[in-house]
Amino acid sequence: MTGNQATLTTSAPITPRPAGLAGNIALRRGVVIALLALTLGFLTLYPLLMLMYGSFYTAPPGEAGTFSLDGYRRIMTGENLAILGNTVMISLTKTVLSLIVASALAFLIARTDVPLRGPLEILITLPFFIPPILTAMAWGMLGSPQIGTLNLFWKWLSGSETALINVYSWGGVVWHMMQYSIPFLFLLLVDAFRAIDPSLEESSRTSGAGAWKTLRKITLPLLLPIMSSLFVLSFIAGLESFESPMFFGTPAGVEVITTQIFHLINRQTSPDYQAVTAMSLSIVVLMMLVIVWQRWLLGGRNFQTITGKGFRPRIVSLGAWRWPAFA
After folding, report:
1. pLDDT recorded at residue 56
2. Confidence (pLDDT) at 64
3. What is the pLDDT of residue 214?
4. What is the DSSP secondary structure assignment for residue 317, as one 8-state letter?
5. d(Cα 226, Cα 229) in Å, to the nearest integer?
């Protein structure tokens, strides 16, 4: 060849991995997985087993005692059953209202032309950066029946001697819990609304279904897994909540499981650890029942949106309602 240089490129043959080396890698992987499983089991099962042990043991940890069912007998009194029912109702009310508000906010941000959607999406999540005890103190100064700023302004404006709001109440507990539940639910729902393929909704509308039927048959079933999961998470967080019931519920005589546990340990001459552990175990059982309910609701089905191309969520024009929605 003239003026050209031929280059011969060769590649080394691929050497198969020895069977012994592959076996060693699989063995190491199995050991790592086993260690992780043991660690996870220790961190989850050990506390539960100790909780169960304490619910049957009559003495505090480290002291001599006997085994009995006295702890469960004490929590089966009418007062404690009322506290358990109150806990469930507060958590359920907070969860349902928060899910409705968060869904509306997520829809407005993800699927409508509401003004300033970007800044609003950030502002809605601001409560994550504020400790609950600080907002509880703030609402105490705003909504106290005697010295709350809002009530003082209302009395000056109307001439009434009756307070407009009372944050130290059942409703005050729910209100304060919602201020943290709504941003949490919104943060996860807004991306779920964006992930829905609009062609599915458009196909439904093209087939003659109205907006309500499309929402009921297409949109809500697609959101059912995330909605049910968020319901469970929010409900469990409500059962575990302490700051709101302690700050706003205790002065009004509104007791929940967490505040009752606090009182049984800190406001008695001899802490009743057996009743406390039995009460805590009942909450764990209730949480498991909620998870079982979610599995039953989904019916073991898999939910997937299959699409072969990228898409953008369809933006709904609000028209004259843009600024009221923004407000």
Report:
1. 78
2. 72
3. 73
4. P
5. 5
Assign residue 18 a region: left if phi > 0, alpha if psi is -120 to 50, beta otherwise?
A: beta
Low-confidence ranges of the chain (pLDDT < 50): 1-9, 306, 308
pLDDT of residue 1: 46
Closest CA to 254 of 184, 309, 306, 177: 177
Q: What distance in Å separates the CA atoms of residue 101 and residue 183, rounded to the nearest whole number?
A: 10
Give CA separation, 61 vs 75, 131, 257, 272, in Å. 20, 32, 21, 11
Helix (H) or strand (E) holding 79: helix 78-111
The reply to whether the predicted model has a pTM over 0.90 is: no
Q: How many other CB atoms sit within 10 Å of the CB of residue 246?
A: 19
Q: Do 64 and 199 touch, CB atoms closer than 8 A?
A: no
Q: Are 144 and 168 in contact (CB under 8 A)?
A: yes
N-terminal to C-terminal alpha carbon distance within the chain: 80
Residue 177 contacts residue 244 (beta carbons within 8 Å): yes
- pLDDT on residue 178: 92
Distances (CA, A) of 230 to 96, 99, 123, 187, 250: 10, 8, 21, 11, 28
Judge whether 57 and 67 are in contact, CB under 8 Å: yes
What is the spatial distance between Cα 244 and Cα 12, in angstroms, rounded to a whole number? Answer: 69
Measured CA to CA in angstroms, residue 46 lies from 21, 39, 43, 53, 236 at distances of 37, 10, 6, 10, 21
| Residues making up the chain, counted from first to last | 327
Which pLDDT does position 2 carry in this prediction? 47
**Nearest to residue 301, comparing CAs of 228, 213, 205, 200?**
228
